[in-house]
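Example 3.2
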Amino acid sequence: MRMSVRSDEFINSIVRTSITIFTGAVVVYLIANLIDVDYSLKNPLTEAIFCGVSICYYLIVRILECYVSEHFGWLLFSAGNPTYPTVSWVNTDDEKRSVNRRRRQPAARHAFHRK
């Protein structure tokens, strides 16, 4: 089976996700260089800030995009709510035949079942 997805929607979803990650990385870089923190705390602190900033940025932009104006979508490099298609699985004829063959086979008998 293969999934059919339009390439422009796929690219749009990748861009929206990448912008969120990039924004988190830039904010963490700036904070890490502006704040003098003990070296033993620097890695866990930057990881926590990165996750928090990325998630908050995406949530705030999506809320603004949904409830205020679709133009806020440009903060994720695509205006308007994303439209994700319903996933449709494409079966080839060979796959359909193999499924039908499996359905027609009788269930296996176990040694403890009576005939």
